[in-house]
């Protein structure tokens, strides 16, 4: 899929007016709940506030509210409500679509080692989820750029996905430290033109040597026994499996010892002890 171009700031402002957070005031009286929405913009209703009212109605009614009930709770007609939701969803989808480049930017900057890996698409999917979270939580009133705010959530979602999908469950903060260690290794390699030592890497990453060794030990990759050798295309399990046909010969001494023990046990205790000690069969 071709990624759309980045939207100008004026278009961001216009779209976020359709998604800007509203203050929802709920007042309850016996047996009847009235939902009042204080709109921050007198002309543009907000999608998130409508969905919040829908959630509150669901809790009160203990079922999904109808469009008529939701329209009555928001003091709008059904057609106005549907138009509001359609415009809000369209604005949200457009913001997501035109900011997908931020996901690729984060992948190329912080996760270069996964750029050509088989998990690249999965990590990009996690990054898109982080972008969606950023758009849903973004507040234009704070005068912060969306790209700056979204970078944190995209990176957070990718790191969390890597942590939860690992074979061994490790603390969430461990993956962040591992990424810092990888970045420190690359910088030291280019600066010194030689493999860096453990002490240099730990100092560059801002952690202790014990912490470095702990993270390195916990971050060792899990290799599949069915992975293929890039040259011979032979599965790894074939190189460690026992293909020797002499297994029966190795089992013969053990079977013979079991049979001999059965014979000695059939003798009287004193005779059995003499035979074992005479021929060294005590062990």
From TrEMBL:
Fetch the InterPro entries from UniProt.
RNA_pol_sigma-70_dom, RNA_pol_sigma70, RNA_pol_sigma70_r2, RNA_pol_sigma70_r3, RNA_pol_sigma_r2, RNA_pol_sigma_r3/r4-like, Sigma-70_RNA_pol_init_factors
The GO terms describing molecular function are:
DNA binding; sigma factor activity
Reply yes or no: does the keyword NAD apply. Answer: no
Write out the transmembrane intervals. none
- Kindly indicate whether the keyword Transcription belongs to this entry: yes
Superkingdom of this entry's organism? Eukaryota
Its name, as the record gives it, is: RNA polymerase sigma factor, region 3/4, RNA polymerase sigma factor, region 2
Pfam families documented for this protein: Sigma70_r2, Sigma70_r3
List the GO biological process terms.
cellular response to light stimulus; DNA-templated transcription initiation
Q: Which UniProt keywords apply?
A: DNA-binding, Sigma factor, Transcription, Transcription regulation
Family, as annotated = Belongs to the sigma-70 factor family.
Query: Which NCBIfam families does the record cross-reference, listed alphabetically?
Result: sigma70-ECF (TIGR02937)
Instruction: Name all RNA polymerase sigma-70 region domain ranges.
Output: 52-89, 95-161, 180-249
- Cited SUPFAM superfamilies: Sigma2 domain of RNA polymerase sigma factors, Sigma3 and sigma4 domains of RNA polymerase sigma factors
């Amino acid at each position: 899929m071709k990624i759309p171009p980045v939207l100008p700031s004026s278009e961001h402002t216009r779209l976020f007016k359709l998604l800007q957070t509203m203050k929802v005031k709920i007042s309850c009286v016996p047996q009847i709940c009235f939902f009042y929405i204080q709109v921050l913009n007198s002309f543009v209703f907000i999608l998130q506030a409508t969905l919040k009212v829908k959630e509150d109605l669901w809790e009160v009614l203990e079922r999904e509210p109808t469009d008529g009930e939701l329209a009555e709770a928001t003091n709008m007609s059904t057609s106005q409500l549907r138009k509001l939701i359609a415009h809000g969803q369209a604005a949200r989808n457009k913001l997501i679509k035109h900011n997908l480049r931020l996901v690729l930017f984060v992948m190329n900057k912080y996760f270069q080692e996964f750029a050509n890996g088989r998990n690249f698409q999965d990590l990009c999917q996690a990054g898109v989820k982080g972008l969606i979270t950023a758009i849903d939580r973004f507040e234009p009133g704070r005068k912060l750029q969306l790209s700056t705010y979204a970078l944190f959530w995209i990176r957070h979602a990718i790191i969390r996905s890597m942590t939860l999908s690992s074979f061994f469950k490790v603390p969430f903060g461990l993956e962040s430290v591992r990424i810092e260690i990888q970045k420190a290794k690359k910088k030291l390699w280019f600066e010194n033109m030689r493999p860096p030592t453990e002490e240099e890497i730990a100092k560059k990453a801002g952690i202790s040597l014990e912490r470095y060794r702990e993270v390195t030990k916990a971050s060792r990759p899990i290799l599949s026994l069915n992975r293929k050798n890039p040259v011979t295309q032979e599965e790894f399990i074939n190189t460690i499996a026992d293909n020797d046909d002499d297994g029966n010969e190795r089992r013969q001494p053990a079977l013979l010892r079991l049979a001999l023990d059965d014979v000695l046990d059939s003798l009287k205790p004193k005779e059995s002890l003499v035979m074992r000690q005479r021929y060294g069969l005590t062990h």
